[in-house]
Design a protein that fits this description.
globular, ten-stranded mixed beta sheet, alpha+beta, 198 residues, disordered N terminus, VC0467-like, 10 strands
Length: 198
């Protein structure tokens, strides 16, 4: 018999995520790639690259794209055969709803599986069925995350005003790059050089 408390907590977490992600679809504003500046010294947020999308009301949601964990889909879903074939690790998407798995997948066009376009050529799957289908048939051009980032209204604007992030265009080839070792340093040097020429 399933643990009813655990089922309730997961359902609550899923509904929380759906609320924010649905708000992201309706909100105006472009998705950006945030690159932590050197002065952002924090065990979680330091040296991060984050895909961030505005949501209604002035907040933002997003995913850290360069923090692989030591956990795999096979460990998380030992009974799910397709998960055993995904060699890439799960990534830490953020500190909110870390018991949920999300998928970012590259797609040139449109999708009909309930995924939402979060950036040019990047779709986000948050529904369990859509994530499962991506694991089963599109894992070679997708990345899987535990959790997401949520900024309260005005919080990201404050962080930008404090100079904690560089802002760049989100490119699928960077967001979904297989190996992320050195990616933060690469983007940081490029953005520092750009800032010095302005």
């Amino acid at each position: 018999m399933p643990d009813l408390k655990l089922v309730f907590v997961r359902a609550l977490a899923a509904s929380f995520a759906v609320f924010f992600l649905t708000a992201a679809v309706a909100a105006p504003g472009e998705t950006v790639l945030l690159v932590a500046k050197r002065q952002l010294e924090d065990p979680i947020w330091g040296s991060t690259i984050v895909l961030a999308k505005p949501i209604e009301g002035g907040g933002h949601v997003g995913f850290i794209v360069n923090k692989p964990t030591k956990m795999s889909l096979a460990e998380l879903f030992p009974e799910h055969e397709p998960s055993k074939k995904v060699a890439d690790p799960l990534f830490l998407g953020g500190t909110v709803n870390m018991n949920l798995v999300f998928a970012l997948v590259e797609e040139h066009g449109s999708r009909k599986d309930g995924s939402i376009r979060i950036a040019p050529d990047i779709f986000l799957a948050y529904d369990t069925k859509a994530v499962d289908r991506i694991i089963e048939s599109e894992s070679d051009h997708a990345r899987f995350f535990l959790g997401l980032v949520v900024w309260r209204p005005g919080q990201l604007d404050d962080e930008l005003d404090r100079g904690l992030w560089y802002v760049d265009e989100p490119e699928a080839k960077l967001v979904l790059r297989r190996k992320t070792d050195g990616l933060w340093e690469e983007l940081l040097l490029r953005l520092e050089a750009r800032a010095n020429t302005i």
